[in-house]
Design a protein that fits this description.
The structure is a single chain. Helices cover about 0% and strands about 25% of the residues. The chain is mainly beta. It has a domain of about 80 residues. The strands form 2 sheets. A two-stranded parallel sheet has the order 1-3.
Length: about 120
Amino acid sequence: MYGELGHLKIKTSHLWIKHLSSKIDCSQLGYPQFCGPGKGKNGGGGYGTKGKGNGEQGGEMYGEETLLKQIHFGSGGCGSIHGGSGSGIIELIIEQQLINHGSIQSNGGSGIMEGQY
């Protein structure tokens, strides 16, 4: 229905991300624009908090802020022309030690506003 959504799960005793240029990234691998339980009406998609948008047009909250019970994909947003995709899931289960000198990120996309394409 939505194509491939990005969910990375790493379970290990130790994880060392050694170099500054190293990256784990699931940005924009969630629900596509206009899709998902917290899809934006005229703004960003929601998740553990309400999405930001014009007036009350951001996506509704779903899931919970702490991510302790269940993890969901981020919902897509809605802009003047195109909304950005929601975030994918990065699930790290580290038993002992995580050393991170790089970056770990999973962000939603900004979308394309009128006149940007």
